[in-house]
Automatic annotation (TrEMBL):
Residues 1-19 form the signal peptide. Gene3D superfamilies: 2-enoyl-CoA Hydratase, Chain A, domain 1, 2.30.42.10, 3.30.750.44, TolB, C-terminal domain, Tricorn protease N-terminal domain. One of its GO terms (cellular component) is cytoplasm. It comes from Empedobacter falsenii. Its EC number is 3.4.21.-. Belongs to the peptidase S41B family. Its main location: cytoplasm. Residues 831-1013 form the Tail specific protease domain. It comes from the Bacteria. This is Tricorn protease homolog. One of its GO terms (biological process) is proteolysis. Coiled coil: none annotated.
Length: 1039
């Protein structure tokens, strides 16, 4: 184990941030009991400084991040969390220096919250058993214990009062969604209290907003965060039951911590530390100096090999331009001689060669948006900016004589780019959407532009006559026809589609490649081919042949009957997409991706020749992003590498491109910030941005970009900015190789539940777990004495025996069973699998409750989310129960959403419409399953979110039954996302959801018909008033 570092680091080795330069991204602060010393996290380490500021001392220097320093009330110990082994664990060390001791070992995320007042125990929040919950571990390092039962008592931020009461919150808005500001809804966090000795429970605040992050002094005064006054997080106190605002900042605070003596409160504000003087009732920033190692500006080395995002081959076939990590490179067509062309300060996404083989057109971010630029392929001369739009210009295609380009712009424009004047013009304004597009293209004679636009969320195929400036919708079907492309002879349009089902909300579930002829063309005649055998060919020069090859006659386009001329081209098995069509020697080649062989996408080719059977071949064992053709070869981007192959070959050859380049993360982070902001600006579902000045927020948070020290700071900054929108389905995630850990650990779970007070004694066996299986000999009351031959020390943390560098295939456990040693083997599972089984146990207990209280007359189905896998669970529940039960309860409490609302509602809407029977048999209704002919109750609560809210709204609109529980979360915007230059990702909530009378569900949620609240105490005592009321309502209708 790496030991603590106490040192006055050499001023020659490490630069010191002076008093004149403020220190930012100091976080998770706390105070010594006497309020004389401040402890905080900065640049991944724990530091301390005087309460009046000055020079700070680095306390830890472990690999990874150390956060949440907390000093014991007796002032002797410092606890903190560190992810040096991949996940956050709890550590403790003497306050005056010495050996660091690791207390928790489970692979879960353990974050220190506070100490007990006797300085013997540490409280922490962990996702070991569920989403998150409160735990306690003693200073001696024995096995930690969960403080509360029930899978959905997801408590967080727990502190202990001097009287022994626990103060905490029980909401995701105070845990994983802290950055979301101004949320008001049923899931708002309130301060709750529970006394483990007296078993008394109390709700301390009931404001319809956010009250969270409690901290308590020795007098029992509670300090916490609330946004009640102005929508910003400010410091409040709760004394004698009265809530009082202590600050009125216009920007939010974070992470308040009161000293044990109650004299000072330290907190974060604007990424700096502030101290509130309780007696003087004043706040001031803490000015500190730190010895910091500014490494973000240092150049890092990257490789282009297997990291190519886009490429193009020059018209002469000799050169290649490609993009890697947002930078343009140019090489010969074999990838041997490479030169970096762009500087990498902005992100390049697409690059195309101009006709002269010397210049490139590319799109690069400008103020965060993709715009078009021109640059010399030799890397000489200045960059010429062609557009300066505050919208994303993308998906460019050149015409056949390389005189014009077509591209998409923003949410609503198709544009032409004249490749001589380099001027753009808009030819179509329509509902394009600003991402997830099919690429536009030119007809083979360059007369038409083929593009896609949205109708009722589905892609239709359009053609635009450039000269006549007319546009025709060829499909207009109500389902999506995606990826349209011309056949080189101009007779067909190929596309991918699931022709019977819309692609929203589930996405295109089945896809095949189709083609439609542009008129009622006849097939070739064999007799004409025979006659041509005796026609002498006129000899022409090679140059003339080449010119004649591109001399297309006017295309024939007959929109009438277009849908009737659609024909299936590929097999119906599997999923086919991304058609690319080429011709060569009177043969037509269709390349496409399909997963029909083994479930993984592979590149296939279908060859069509007059008077011959079509032939289909597998070309490569991976799918292609796109394919380009030059005179001799095809080139494809496959798995971030360029492959070359002949049009008739089945053996693509990887073009070996090896080159290293340098780039610094500071510059890259600045570009990513701009691009993420612009992406949200262009795609956020509400053009009024929930009443926030989005541009002003960009400027506000950009002032802190120069002080970002590492990737974690960037994550904090961007998520804070996104949180200003008070929106669901937002977030920025990022991981870099610099954050990789040398050591990671895995906890081998068994499904054995041990007793709280006897952590090595079996309390019960979890249903369906490895320990539940018949061949495993474990019983309640058994005492664990050995794991894989290692004898148990009951003074040790039990987690140490089950946590290993990687998952074990099997465990050998020995138990003491009433004096007899029992040995058994178990196949362990992951912690996520264990949590899923704990969730299943909660569902099982609900089902048993329904069965008992309804005398087995009610079908009960629970959906964890609205995914296709949970849809299958629901349908199987109905198949197994509905036709033999008298009523139905569908439970969507704690449901985390998805996109199958339509499928669920359609099933529930089925009503009986007739009966039939075999001779002398029993009459049976049609359809087989007709739940709508029976009483149905839908259960919802404050955690029902996203598509669960869509389902509840639809259930109410269709009047399918009663809704019981609490109002839903108000977390419903359909979302997607975009990647950034380094692989980071940000979410884009782009599609709002509204009731038939226009209410925005993100703002209103869905209210139940009968309001019943389940409290923390109900769950703790294994009570479920909501479910019991649902049973009562169904039974009432059955009388």
């Amino acid at each position: 184990m790496k030991k603590i570092v106490f040192t006055l680091l050499s001023a020659f080795a490490i630069s010191q941030v002076s008093a004149q330069e403020k220190v930012y991204f100091t976080s998770t602060p706390s105070l010594s009991p006497d309020a004389k010393t401040v402890y905080f996290s900065y640049d991944g380490d724990i530091w301390s400084t005087d309460i009046n500021g000055g020079n700070a001392s680095r306390i830890t220097a472990l690999e990874g991040e150390e956060i949440n320093p907390r000093v014991s009330p007796d002032g002797k110990w410092l606890a903190f969390s560190s992810n040096q082994y991949g996940n956050y664990d709890i550590y403790v060390m003497p306050i005056n220096g010495g050996q660091i001791k690791q207390l928790t070992f489970h692979q879960a995320k353990d974050e220190v919250e506070s100490w007990s007042w006797d300085s013997k125990s540490i409280y922490f929040t962990s996702n070991q058993n569920n989403g998150f919950g409160s735990f306690k571990i003693n200073l001696d390092g024995k096995t930690p214990e969960a403080l509360f039962t029930n899978y959905f008592n997801t408590t967080n931020g727990l502190v202990e009062t001097p009287q022994g009461e626990y103060i905490f919150t029980n909401s995701s808005e105070s845990a994983s969604q802290v950055t979301r500001k101004r949320y008001k809804g049923e899931n708002n966090p309130d301060l709750l209290g529970y006394n483990p000795t007296t078993k008394s429970y109390k709700q301390y605040t009931d404001y319809n907003g956010k009250d969270f992050n409690p901290t308590v002094d020795k007098n029992g005064i509670i300090y916490f965060i609330s946004d009640e006054n102005n929508g910003e997080y400010n410091l409040y106190q709760l004394a004698n039951g009265k809530k009082e605002a202590l600050t009125k900042f216009e920007t939010s605070i974070k992470k308040p911590f009161v000293s044990a003596d109650g004299s000072k409160v330290v907190f974060e504000k604007d990424y700096q530390l502030f101290v509130y003087d309780v007696k003087a009732k004043t706040s001031k920033p803490l000015t500190i100096n730190v010895n910091s190692n500014k490494s973000l500006e240092k150049e890092q080395n990257f490789e282009v090999e297997n990291n190519i995002d886009y490429f193009d081959i020059s018209p002469d076939g000799k050169k290649m331009a490609f993009v890697s990590r947002g930078i343009i490179f140019v090489s010969d067509n074999e990838g041997k001689f490479i030169n970096q062309i762009s500087d990498g300060k902005e992100r390049v996404l697409e690059v195309k060669w101009l006709k002269d083989n010397k210049n490139l057109i590319f799109n690069q971010t400008y103020k965060g948006y993709q715009n078009w630029f021109k640059i010399s392929a030799e890397g000489k001369g200045k960059v010429e900016q062609l557009t300066s739009d505050l919208r994303n210009n993308r998906d460019i295609t050149f015409n056949n004589d390389l005189s014009q380009a077509v591209y998409l712009s923003g949410r609503d424009e198709v544009r032409l780019l004249d490749l001589k004047s380099l001027k753009s013009s808009t030819i179509v304004k329509d509902e394009i959407w600003a991402f997830q597009n099919s690429k536009p293209s030119f007809s083979p004679n360059d007369e038409y532009v083929l593009f896609s636009a949205k109708r009722n969320f589905e892609l239709d195929i359009f053609i635009h006559n450039i000269k006549k400036n007319t546009t025709v919708n060829l499909t207009n079907t109500g389902v999506s026809e995606a990826d349209p492309t011309w056949s080189p002879d101009g007779k067909y349009i190929y596309f991918s589609s699931d022709r019977k089902n819309p692609s929203y909300p589930l996405g295109m579930q089945e896809s095949s490649i189709y083609r439609a002829s542009l008129d009622w063309f006849d097939q070739a005649y064999k007799s004409e081919k025979f006659d041509n055998l005796f026609v002498e060919e006129k000899k022409v020069e090679k140059k003339e042949k080449k010119e004649e090859k591109n001399d297309f006659k006017a295309l024939t386009i007959n929109p009438e009957g277009f849908l009737e001329r659609i024909e299936l081209v590929t097999d119906r098995f599997g999923y086919q997409t991304n058609p690319f069509v080429f011709t060569d020697d009177k043969k037509q080649f269709l390349f496409y991706n399909t997963n029909q062989e083994n479930g993984k996408f592979q590149l296939h080719r279908k060859t069509t020749t007059d008077f011959e059977e079509d032939k289909t071949d597998k070309i490569f064992n991976k799918g292609a992003d796109f394919i380009v053709k030059n005179e001799k070869n095809l080139y494809a981007l496959i798995d971030n590498s360029v492959y070359k192959f002949g049009i008739s070959s089945t053996n693509p050859e990887k073009v070996s491109i090896k080159y290293n380049f340098n780039k610094n993360l500071a510059s890259e982070f600045n570009q990513m910030y701009e691009e993420a902001w612009a992406g949200v600006e262009e795609n956020f579902y509400d053009e009024n941005f929930h009443g926030i000045d989005w541009k002003a927020k960009k400027e506000q948070y950009a002032t802190f970009l120069p002080y970002v020290n590492n990737r974690n700071d960037l994550r904090i900054l961007l998520n804070d900015m996104l949180g200003e929108l008070n929106s669901s389905h937002l977030g920025f995630s990022s991981f870099g190789k610099e954050e990789s850990r040398r050591l990671n650990y895995f906890t081998n779970e068994t499904g054995i539940i041990f007793k709280k007070d006897q952590p090595f004694t079996v309390e019960k066996i979890l249903r369906k777990s490895p320990a539940f299986l018949k061949n495993v000999d474990v019983q309640e009351g058994d005492i664990l004495v050995s794991v894989n031959g290692q004898k148990i020390d009951q003074n040790q943390n039990r987690e140490t025996y089950f946590t290993t560098p990687k998952k074990l295939e099997e465990l050998t456990l020995e138990f003491d069973r009433k004096g007899k040693t029992i040995s058994t083997k178990i196949h362990p599972i992951s912690n996520n699998e264990l949590k899923s089984l704990l969730y299943d146990e909660w569902i099982y207990e609900n089902r048993q409750r329904v069965k008992k209280l309804s005398n087995d007359r009610i079908a009960y189905s629970y959906m964890k989310n609205m995914s296709t896998s949970e849809l299958d669970v629901f349908l199987l529940d109905m198949v197994e129960q509905e036709n033999r039960k008298d009523g139905v309860i569908l439970d969507l409490r704690f449901n985390t959403g998805g996109n199958v609302h339509d499928k669920v509602l359609n099933f529930l809407s089925q009503r009986p419409y007739l009966k039939w029977k075999y001779r002398e048999g029993q009459l049976t209704v049609q359809p087989n399953f007709a739940p709508s002919g029976k009483p149905i109750v839908l259960l919802i609560n404050e955690y029902s979110l996203s598509d669960a809210e869509m389902t509840a709204a639809g259930f109410k609109a269709l009047k399918l039954g009663k809704i019981i529980g609490q109002e839903t979360y108000r977390w419903i915007i359909f979302t997607s996302g975009k990647g950034l230059v380094d692989g980071s990702f940000y979410r884009l909530p782009s599609w709002g959801t509204y009731t038939l009378d226009g209410q925005n569900l993100e703002k209103t949620g869905v209210k139940p018909d009968i309001y019943i609240k389940n409290t923390f105490l109900d769950r703790l005592e294994n009570k479920d008033p909501q479910l019991e009321r649902a049973i009562q309502e169904v039974m009432k209708e059955l009388k």
